[in-house]
Amino acid sequence: MTTLFVATTGGHLAQLDGLSRRIPQDDDSVWVTHANEQSTSLLAGRDVVYVPYIGFHSVPGVLKAMPQAHQLLQQRKITRAVSTGSAIALGYLPYLAARGVECHYIESAARVTHPSATGKVLRRVPGVHCHTQYPHWTDQGWHYGGSSFDVYRPEAGAGLAALTGSDEVRVVVTVGTAGEFPFRRLIEPLAALLAEDGPLSKAVERPVRVLWQTGCTPVDGLGIEARPFLPAAELNDALRDAHIVVSHSGAGSALAVLDSGHLPLLANRLSGFGEAGDDHQLDLSKELARRGLGRPIEDLATLNVDDLLGTLEHAVVKTDNPPPFRLDNVPAQALSS
Asked: Where is the Glycosyl transferase family 28 C-terminal domain (predicted)?
């Protein structure tokens, strides 16, 4: 038996990677995603088929994916398909489900209160079993299997003592892998706070070294050395070495920061500023704060040194034995309701 794992790069792929380790394994597996610095690093050594990127709400991109789904079905004898979205799931799951493949769509942990546009479509596709990561919006068409965040718990941090013995403060700023949505509204105030001889440096009386992972955000005029996209392994190493991490409130970035043991300072992308397709990051940052796994920035215009240093008061621990994610099948009658 062969399982197909399919996901868009970024948070969707990061979640699927983690969840794939918590579901029953088949004898064989193949991954389908887009090629970038994150995916080629994260999936190194695995059987991967790289396909063209499917843009936000791109119907032509979805339709072009279906021949690849047919080819994989014929060549690899796919018996199960699991996806965390986003649009790429529409190009594979409906086609495979129609041909008798056991198909599962796991809605992103970023969708705290309701399904995404992809989830709403797949909920109506016969043969696609839909799973939410939040028990409070299950219904007859959605099954709760667990959460990507179940593997983490908060604990007390060292506070300013975390800087003891270090001659510098190491900061990572990460805005994820989205290629369509810049987030300069976050980078601008941070560039001033983290500048050489800036407010943070003066507050801690030592230099500040920053890794700026800026995605598609233009950084002209800000005086920073930006790295738009990094291999997953390189970013993870930098996160583990950091004292302070500032992240957009994306699921993939949050998972990477939590894996490093840090409490992220979270900035919400807002659709009104052209930073995201909708405002789901507001819900995710609230959920992470509820779990004690994130510290949301209330107002980027008032972001200050206390916000940055406040993250040192908390740490995050990852369990070695996460609970399984249950791919129980949704009752058949729910699929046609």
From this structure: 171-291
d(CA 64, CA 90): 11
- Rounded to an integer, what distance in angstroms lies between the CA atom of residue 76 and that of residue 334? 30
Q: How far is CA 161 from CA 157, 189, 205, in A?
A: 9, 26, 14
How far is Cα 113 from Cα 100, in angstroms, rounded to an integer? Answer: 31
152-156 and 314-318 beta bridge pairing:
antiparallel
| Predicted model pTM | 0.89
314, 292 in Cβ contact below 8 A? yes
Q: Provide φ and ψ at 19, rounded to 5°.
A: -70, -30
Structural domain count, the chain: 2
Give the pLDDT confidence of 3-41 residue by residue, as tens digits. 999 999 989 999 999 999 999 888 899 999 999 999 999
- Rounded CA gap, 176 and 215, in Å? 6
- Rounded to the nearest angstrom, the gap between the alpha carbon of residue 112 and the centroid of all alpha carbons in its chain is 13
Distance of CA 217 to the CA centre of its chain: 18
Q: Are residues 37 and 77 in the same domain?
A: yes
Query: Identity (one letter) of the amino acid at 97?
Result: A
172 lies in the same domain as 277: yes
Return the DSSP state at 267. E
Would you call 152 helix, strand, or coil by DSSP?
strand
Domain assignment of residue 337, yes or no: no
DSSP 337: -
Do 87 and 209 belong together in one domain?
A: no
Q: Omega before 147 cis (within 30°)?
A: no
The per-residue pLDDT for range 264-321, each reduced to its tens digit, is 999 999 999 999 989 999 999 999 999 999 999 999 999 999 999 999 999 999 998 8
Residues in the chain: 337
DSSP assignment of 221-237 equals TS---EES---HHHHHH
Q: Alpha-carbon torsion 172, 268, 145, 1, what sign?
A: negative
Residue 325 belongs to some domain of the structure:
no
Q: Which domain holds residue 295?
A: 153-318
In whole angstroms, give the CA distance from residue 131 to residue 277: 22
Q: Is residue 86 part of a domain?
A: yes
Same domain, 167 and 304: yes
